[in-house]
Amino acid sequence: DKSIYNLWKAFLKPQVAGVCGKLIAMKDRSLVKLLNPIVGAQIFEHEISNILDKPSESIYGYIQTLPKEFSAYRYFSVQDIANNVEDTSILSISYLKYNYLLCFDLISKNNRSWILYYESSSQAEIDIPSNLPEYIHQQR
User: Fold this and answer.
1) By the 8 A CB rule, do 77 and 40 touch?
2) What positions belong to coiled-coil segments (predicted)?
3) pTM as predicted
4) How far is CA 77 from CA 89, 97, 130, in A?
């Protein structure tokens, strides 16, 4: 119930350019769904990301990709990048579609000391596709 607030609270640190929360794969973890290899693999992937990847990357101040499902950026930090791009459609295609480019540009700016932060107290539930066509569509 306080996930959005906790995500926002991370921006009280002036060096935070972007923050992401913890993604929880659906609460309905019935045995039938867990036996599906597509569902089980995705739940495992999200759990490993929440336990190992995001917290350890956050220690260094650089998270390779902030998940588009539950993340936020400081407006000033993104506006700084947008001002350096001549065509705003390039910004929307390159940076928002390829989130890792945006994350790298944020922390590699000259005269800036931006960091990317993981807030584990902010949680959002996401739906997991249960069949291959849905999974492919989601990844695309």
Assistant:
1) no
2) none
3) 0.75
4) 18, 18, 37
Tallying the residues shown for the chain, one arrives at 140
Task: Give the pLDDT of the chain (140 residues) as one tens digit per residue.
Answer: 888 999 999 999 999 989 998 888 776 666 666 678 888 888 888 888 888 888 898 888 888 888 878 888 888 887 766 666 555 544 454 555 667 777 888 888 777 788 999 998 988 888 888 888 888 887 76
Q: In whole angstroms, what is the distance from residue 87 CA to residue 55 CA?
A: 34
CA distance 106 to 125: 27
What CA–CA distance (Å, rounded) separates 61 from 107?
8
Under a CB-based contact definition with an 8 Å cutoff, are residues 122 and 70 in contact?
Answer: yes
